[in-house]
Amino acid sequence: MSNTASERPAVTPAHESSAATPAHESSAMARARELGAAVLGTTHPNPPVGAVVLDAAGVPVGEGATTPPGGPHAEVVALARAGERARGGTVVVTLEPCAHTGRTGPCADALLAAGIARVVVAVPEPTELAGGGAQRLRDGGVEVLLGVEEAEAADGALAAWLTGIRRHRPFVVWKVAGTLDGRVAAADGSSRWITGPEARAAVHRLRATCDAVVVGTGTALADDPQLTVRDADGADAARQPLRVVMDRRGRLPGTARVLDGAAPTHVSAAPSPRELLAELFTRDVRRVLLEGGPTLAAAFLRDGLVDEVVVHLAPKLLGAGAPLVGDLGISAIDDALTLDVVDVTRLGGDVQVRLRPTRHTGAGRPADGRG
Ligand SMILES: NC(=O)c1ccc[n+]([C@@H]2O[C@H](COP(=O)([O-])OP(=O)(O)OC[C@H]3O[C@@H](n4cnc5c(N)ncnc54)[C@H](OP(=O)(O)O)[C@@H]3O)[C@@H](O)[C@H]2O)c1
């Protein structure tokens, strides 16, 4: 595992049949995905990986997730918890164990030293630098399965890190709260409390999974948001994402709450979303929460730079006020930007819809083809 940007050429895994994965390994893989998701936002620029150790009889005896950079990787944490019970057992892990020495030693060597007999991997390591772990394990006599439930892991906690490797930019989640008629603010400009406390708490949990939170000057001036992560008790969380304001004309006043010192802040004069993302990428940001208003949302969508959308819909009608998104340059229904619904959840009296764009404005091009 690493943050390197050079991509490894595709290799044909020696064992790739997930049909060969028994039920207890499939449950362990589901748990490994959960463990990876639980550390999302704390590992950048490293991948958030989850790992479960099963003993020789297939019983879970240790689990772990990537620790912040410089700390042990998921497999090493899980092996330490399993101790001697790992010998002759299986490690189930969401990303191929690394074979290189970075800030920590190679995970493949730790697995060999622990006497692991079998390793079940979801996503093959995509980078040259950290690659070769599966081969090193096989050379050491370990049975390795690659590509087991790969899509689930790649679309989950690893999605942002993989976007960094493949597109050399951060993954962008656009979050917006609107009324049933798609208004994000009332005609008088007020927008606070569109949604209820459960949805607002969910926004703080979502921010905590991101490395940066982005707004435009429009939102910074209208709402003066603080953009920090607060826990359930309302206290500032120990780890805060970078707060970012896109302010190409220098309109942000020095008294703005985003400049209050409660978390790091970056005021950017980047002329476009793509240039902003390039700036953030060099600062190790891998997952961005776009919380800006309709102008910025439209700019990111027009450039094909939104990877996931989280909409909080309040069962309210305003009939007037700022729309969910600004002009996308679309005039015909056939050219609509279409999205796939990933899931729908009730948050108190509101509804959360999570979506992924399927194609972009006009050209009918898949989201994957751009950005
Ligand atoms: N309900 C919600 O979820 C929600 C969330 C956010 C905002 N809002 C509401 O949305 C309203 C503000 O909307 P808004 O559209 O003005 O906010 P915005 O999208 O956050 O800010 C837009 C401004 O960002 C600046 N900007 C900097 N770089 C840009 C670029 N590359 N492309 C486009 N703009 C860039 C522009 O100002 P310059 O021309 O000065 O550069 C632009 O006017 C407020 O009423 C707020 O309450 C609601």
From TrEMBL:
Q: Which residues form a coiled coil?
A: none
Superkingdom, natural source: Bacteria
- GO MF entries: 5-amino-6-(5-phosphoribosylamino)uracil reductase activity; diaminohydroxyphosphoribosylaminopyrimidine deaminase activity; zinc ion binding
Residues at the active site: 75
Q: Its Enzyme Commission number?
A: 3.5.4.26, 1.1.1.193
Outline the segment boundaries, as ranges, of region: Disordered: 1-29
Keyword list (alphabetical) reads:
Hydrolase, Metal-binding, Multifunctional enzyme, NADP, Oxidoreductase, Riboflavin biosynthesis, Zinc
Q: What processes in GO biological process is this protein linked to?
A: riboflavin biosynthetic process
Which residues take part in binding NADP(+)?
Answer: 177, 193, 219, 223, 293-299
Q: Which Pfam families match?
A: dCMP_cyt_deam_1, RibD_C
Chain residues that bind substrate: 191, 207, 227, 230, 291
What InterPro entries has UniProt attached to this entry? Answer: APOBEC/CMP_deaminase_Zn-bd, CMP_dCMP_dom, Cytidine_deaminase-like, DHFR-like_dom_sf, Eubact_RibD, RibDG_C, Riboflavin_Biosynth_HTPR
Query: Which pathway?
Result: Cofactor biosynthesis; riboflavin biosynthesis; 5-amino-6-(D-ribitylamino)uracil from GTP: step 3/4; Cofactor biosynthesis; riboflavin biosynthesis; 5-amino-6-(D-ribitylamino)uracil from GTP: step 2/4
Known catalytic reactions? 2,5-diamino-6-hydroxy-4-(5-phosphoribosylamino)-pyrimidine + H2O + H(+) = 5-amino-6-(5-phospho-D-ribosylamino)uracil + NH4(+); 5-amino-6-(5-phospho-D-ribitylamino)uracil + NADP(+) = 5-amino-6-(5-phospho-D-ribosylamino)uracil + NADPH + H(+)
Q: Which residues form the CMP/dCMP-type deaminase domain?
A: 23-145
SUPFAM superfamilies, per the entry: Cytidine deaminase-like, Dihydrofolate reductase-like
**Textual note on the cofactor:** Binds 1 zinc ion.
What is its cofactor?
Zn(2+)
Tell me yes or no: is Oxidoreductase among this UniProt entry's keywords: yes
Q: Where does Zn(2+) bind?
A: 73, 98, 107
Q: What function is annotated for this protein?
A: Converts 2,5-diamino-6-(ribosylamino)-4(3h)-pyrimidinone 5'-phosphate into 5-amino-6-(ribosylamino)-2,4(1h,3h)-pyrimidinedione 5'-phosphate.
Cited PANTHER family: 2,5-DIAMINO-6-RIBOSYLAMINO-4(3H)-PYRIMIDINONE 5'-PHOSPHATE REDUCTASE, DIHYDROFOLATE REDUCTASE FAMILY PROTEIN (AFU_ORTHOLOGUE AFUA_8G06820)
Regarding protein family, the annotation reads: In the C-terminal section; belongs to the HTP reductase family. In the N-terminal section; belongs to the cytidine and deoxycytidylate deaminase family.
**What is this protein's name?**
Riboflavin biosynthesis protein RibD
Q: Which organism is it from?
A: Geodermatophilus ruber
